[in-house]
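Before the break, one more example. Copy the sequence into your notebook; we will annotate it together after we see the structure.
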Amino acid sequence: MSQSNAQMRQNYVFTSESVSEGHPDKVCDQISDAVVDAYLSVNPEARVACETLATTNRVVIAGEVRGADSITPADIEKIARDQIKRIGYEQKGFHWLDAKVEVLLHHQSADIAMGVDAKDEKDEGAGDQGIMFGFACDETAELMPAPLCFSSKILRLMAEARHSGKEKHLRPDAKSQVTLVYENGKPVRAASIVVSTQHSEAVSQKDVREIVRPYVLASLPEGWMCSEKEFYVNPTGQFIIGGPDGDTGLTGRKIIVDTYGGAAPHGGGAFSGKDPTKVDRSAAYAARYLAKNVVAAGLAERCTIQLSYAIGVSKPISFYVSTSDSQVDAAKLEKVLQEMMDLTPRGIRKHLQLNRPIYTRTAAYGHFGRAPEADGGFSWEKLDLVDGLRRHFGASATSEASKAKVPA
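Here is what the structure looks like once it is written out:
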């Protein structure tokens, strides 16, 4: 069903948050996805459902795997240590070298395997029931909500400066939050900015504020900075103890950060730690891919797609498209999209070529709004359906970058 602009609020404020690669939950996401990549590197058909917990100098990795028996617990332990080292944790309460790593992976349930594997005339079924959403909007060149784009960019720039050695006092754990003012349906400026970042003992809170400021300014369009009284940096005070030493981390607790910053629905399932046979991950990627191509083709300003699956059943149970500011018939759009892409678990993996070790990089700074990469990373961000959609619906050839509401 299409939504007209008259049905949507045009003047409001909206907030999204992001977290850095050193946030405790993101540490766990990256370890879990590094395990997925290790198994897919050995066997592209491997099955992995991996959960990680991290706390003071301790990491626990548990879950179910199948298809790469050559990978040992010692290999998994090394993967965890390598990720912690790459992120930059060498502090007393959480150190890549000293942390105790416990590996509790076991073989996948035979009952689950029997229900979802392809056999005889039966196609491969979904690994679980569930609902998945995809979303795109024309607020930014990435066809993502602007508050989330800015929140993530702040933290990426800070992490790059930390890794390069430019900012010697920043530490891995950080969070950001951006609130934007919307007028006539378009984001026009920041109402407030919040950044909390772990830091060394050698700097004051005033110092930290000034360290953070240029990365915020570099992330926003010119003239969009909020007032000084609405610029909050470490609002609770010093932030020296951070990461899993300060707060226990778990895989899958940052699902809104991973997707659309609250600007669109989320089905509930996390992505990290799951191989691409799991529709929680692959179908959410497919839904984003389709929604992005709809918006890029000029068919709508915003597009939300929902898919649902039943365990052991290959075809989706339902497929729903909702658009705003669109003259396209939603029922016809649903039909065309399903003709353009096979939405069975196997069909999604084949279309997006997901059986590759491309997942560790997704586990920080969002799974969407990233550029497709030469080795197949972020394949769900490709715009290769745009021409076909325009032929079906006669939309004007307008690039997604030129449509973006936020200045470049």
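Residues 24-42 form the longest helix (19 residues). The longest strand covers residues 170-183. Try to locate both features in your own notes.
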